[in-house]
Amino acid sequence: MAQETLLRRITNRIRQSLELEDIIRSTTAEVRSLLGTDRVMIYKFHDDGSGQVIAESIYENRLPSLLGLNFPADDIPPHARELFIKSRVRSVVNVESREIGQSPARDLNTGEIPCEEILYRPVDPCHVEYLTAMGVKSSVVAPIIYQDQLWGLLASHHSQARDVAEYELEAMQMVVEQLSVAIAQSNLLTQTRAKAEREAIINRIATLLHSLPTIVLQPALEATVAAFNGVGGRLCIRHNAFDFQHSIFKSLTECLIPGSNCFQLYVCGQQPIIPNPNIYPLLEQYSVWQEHYKSGQYSIWAIPDIYQDANLRIVQLVFQPTKIRSILMIPLHYRQELVGYLSIFRNEIDTETLWAGKFDPDNRQLYPRLSFDLWRESKKSQSQKWTDEEIELAEEISKHFASAIQQHELYQQVQNFNENLENQVHKRTLEMQRTAEQQQAVFGVINKIRESLDIDTIFKTTTKEVCQLIKSDRVSVYKFSADWGGEFVGDFEATSPNWFNESKLGINTIWNDTYLQDTQGGRYRHNETFAVDDIYKMGFTPCHVDNLEQFQIHAFVLAPIFIRKKLWGLLCAYQHTGPRQWKTSEINFISQIASQLGIAIQQAELLVKTQQQAEELTQTLNALQNTQTQLIQTEKMSSLGQLVAGVAHEINNPVNFISGNLTHINEYAKDLLSMLDIYQQKYPKPCEEILERAEEFDLEFIIEDLPKSLSSMKIGVDRIRQIVLSLRNFSRLDEAEMKEVNIHEGIDSTLLILQHRLKTRSESAGIQIIKKYGDLPLVECYAGQLNQVLMNVLSNAIDALEIYRKYPAEDPKTGKITISTTVEVMNDNVKSAVIHISDNGPGMPEAIKDRIFDPFFTTKPVGKGTGLGLSISYQIVVDKHGGILKCDSQPDVGTEFWIEIPIKHIVISRRGEAFGK
């Protein structure tokens, strides 16, 4: 119970707090209270193998405090650490008996918990002296394992000898397992806080860099130095480095040449002291930095101690008068171009470590220490290492600085234009305004592009907006084909009186460029934007120039459009009126729009693909439902047809036998009656026995009634044969193919089958059938399927009239079904046969009438209908015959079905449309 209570309290403490310091402090107190020992402490290992007591609980000061003291790595031999890690061994030492016991927590191979019995052996004398000097007579140690590494130890010390019970080992084992959980939670909390702090630092610096109308870098530099706990820092960037003659920026190396003034320096805090005079007045001008980054890989250079690197000798000289010892050199690059250096400085520090007793690092473990009194180890002029987290933070900050510097350079460029070209102030001012508008317009165009996911709308919006913003004659979207040819899929042409588009360059225009086809996209595969101010000054081949002249193109800018990492097409800006000098801002603007256009196209294609998949799924589901419907109804009608045909066949054989023999029997009867008449004439006076026999079975009545009976039998047999013929006509199993049939026969056959439902019954009136047949020719159709439609429609009409069966025949509400046929003309002047089947039943409301042809929709009670009959009928009439099936119904008036099919079969075709190239 004490173990359970302890475990519960420690678990609750872990759940209530994520602060590891609070957890371990309370844990030591709880464990010491449970075990009743003089001291319980938690010892944590450092990366170098040494360790420190980070928590302890002491009973009435019976043992000296070790809290905060460090112990060297050699105090715990490597073999002991290996046992702690691999076997999770708990160590028990009794100083008086000079024995040490070890008890593994579990078998790592089998996972089973071994017997808790502690196996003792003699303890090393050095270990005994070590504990004796500490004032300990009994010791129990359990390893704290975190992520399969030895994180620390849970140790219990007692100033008197004592036996260790099994429950104590179990309790300590439970505690160290819970501590592992607490350590994991604490580390997660620490990582989360570090991440939040890192993001806050980045946001704070980014805000300083990007929130001001005019870029001010000094506050951002100061905030960066503070973020790294530095004592100083420097920001050296290009300044006034724009070459007007070539319209490019000078490289940073060129700007840092002594005597150059195309750089700007910001400093914060302590700085290196450069001797005067010196040919290199700036730290950044020293060749050591250019040599380090000459490969073009601009990674961060973390220098923990400048005096430990022989390549930094020239740098050591300028830092010797200072206490700066560590440098974090952060290259600032934009699109693989170095634009500046950001450097952070840290001073050397003096360190002091509190050790438990003085030890000799050069003679460790040769003899045990005799004292654990506090010993302070002081070290002077120690360097501060740069952590991986700090390097990652520096990488993020460098991106924001590089972006801000790029904006700063654009701003400098505009300023230089105003300062150096006074004679073109007005023109340059307009261009500066246009540049600013275009930069702002990028976001406007992006927002408009993203307002729609329709690909055509995206192309129209992009080409129109870009064309109007850069004032180009035409902007088009070109899409590559599989062979790296392609066509224009988007186009906007600016209205201009200065040129006429006789070549009809526009959407669906195919343009197969041999350079693009041979190189599979050429320079554009490497995300290069190509600008041509004048096609006649680029050295193009005559064939290429002729092709451009064909479309009246004098200047153009082409920017690649990528979807993920695949080159999809080009965003093209054309000038038809003549040559044009494209500005860098315009080229960058087109490049940025092309990049965003690729994202928009990808989203639109994903939407189209998703819609297609949804539509295909819907079509598949509908087809499956229709197939199920057809299978069910086909099986039903097939079974009914087979049954009807079988019954008709079975009835037909005996009826034919009876019908054939009736003729002979009739002849035989006539002959016998004739012979009897002759006997009566020749022997008018028969004997007494004959007279008695004739009187007994009434010979005169038989002579008179026998011909009548035979005639009645002949009529009955003919009626049976007519019924069998009607059954066979309805089933038409031998007429699965389309052929010419008499529609009226099909109607009559269906009515004959349904005759039992139409007759008058003792308890109710019958249903009256009114036929209004027109002069119909033979109709080419699937007879069996058409009979199925007639059966479904007539059965539904009879079902609807069942409510009137309770009225007498002379009542006005007696159920009536009217069947009329006519010849009419369908669309395209095709003659058709029309069958009207109407009843005077209760009718249907509009909502039900609109759904009667839907699969599985029925108004009948459960078990009375499947909702498949009219759906199948609709498919037979409309899909199979190309006809019309519609319904008109009014409540309390009745329902009428209109069945119309072509008299001659027509082939139903659906035309598709293709986009012309």
Automatic annotation (TrEMBL):
Q: Where is the Phytochrome chromophore attachment site domain?
A: 19-178, 454-596
Q: Which parts of the chain are coiled coil?
A: 607-634
Annotated Histidine kinase domain ranges read: 646-905
Provide the reaction this enzyme catalyses.
ATP + protein L-histidine = ADP + protein N-phospho-L-histidine
The yes or no answer to whether the keyword ATP-binding is present is yes
Per UniProt, what is one Pfam family of this protein? PHY
Q: Which family does it belong to?
A: In the N-terminal section; belongs to the phytochrome family.
Q: What is this protein called?
A: histidine kinase
Q: Which organism is it from?
A: Anabaena sphaerica FACHB-251
